[in-house]
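JOB MANIFEST
job_type = single_chain_structure
chain_count = 1
residues = 414
[input]
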Amino acid sequence: MAGDRNENGGVEEEGGNARDGSIRGFESLYHLLGASLKPETFQEVSRWILGLNCGKALGSIQLPDSATVLSSKHDFDFQAFCFEASKESLRQPRLVRVGLIQNSIELPTTSPFLDQKRAIMQKLKPMIDAAGASGVNILCLQEAWMMPFAFCTREKSWCEFAEPIDGETTQFLQDFARKYNMVIVSPILERDLNHGETIWNTAVIIGNHGNIIGKHRKNHIPRVGDFNESTYYMEGNTGHPVFETAFGKIAVNICYGRHHPLNWLAFGLNGAEIVFNPSATVGELSEPMWPIEARNAAIANSYFVGSINRVGTESFPNPFTSGDGKPQHADFGLFYGSSYFSAPDASCSPSLSRYRDGLIISDMDLNLCRQLKDKWGFRMTARYELYAELFSEYLKPDFKPQVVVDPCLQKTPS
């Protein structure tokens, strides 16, 4: 029983959790706090949790009725916020509207593969239409959005979902890009026909004219528990590309790459203004880190970050194990959604639902990136060679860590 949603984003229902993934019947921690605290207390708590953008609370955006109708009809969470920048004398505001989509799969994983893929496409149509109707300039989807996240199973049959860069999934999104004058970031499982049909975890960057601007392949592959994705694809070979689009310079740090500070740094050094982190991750493994890492990256590198995580629990026909002594299981766990935006001034948006499909939109003034670089001066500039020297030495077989030992530790005890 789903129950009725209340004005605070909760679901009225007896028994605590209304759906798998809710927090005591609420869509997110933020909604729960809003319903539980006095307004003046909640205002202070929001300041601590979300920070302040240009000295004030993050503003909301009024969206067109046509988009909100789609949200209600197709039951997806729909939120929108505005990150501002200070007014400058020599530059006009550089405004861009960005969207993130999180979603669950539509059919059981036992269904024919083509049916599963087409069903997900049909599910996303109204969400993409809502983004287009809202004037979104750049839209990013979740990791491997066109398939179940089957990489935990280690079964090779799921490789059938892999497709070329210009395959069916890209063609499906190219129509939307042309229709809405929108750049779309589409993370897929790629089959590289030019290099022995090698498989990669890839983000395709589709331009606002429907053209393919380029691609980026996932740099870091997890090998922990169920996340042994090297069974399917290799570490990427595209480096840290930044794509200059009609609406700004963007990059894609796919999923596990968010745990690597140098990965974030490299996109910043190449000039990124917005970095997307399309992911597929579950609660026990990563949720304590989820609100922190991308926000830290936005602060440290003076750019915006859009973090996307899929939703729901995906059960597979054949149980599998993680090599950690736990009993075999048929699902990977709960993908907890919670997609959100982070800004270079340490402010962030509330997150989408933990258990519902969702579209979150944000207006951004990209001038904020340079303003924060000037204000905080985090850049190392000439000190980069200090780290380059360390890394060069570290890679040598005879590397010895630079450790200064307390002389007292070397004395023989009396």
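[summary]
The mean pLDDT is 92.
The radius of gyration is 22 Å.
exit_status = 0
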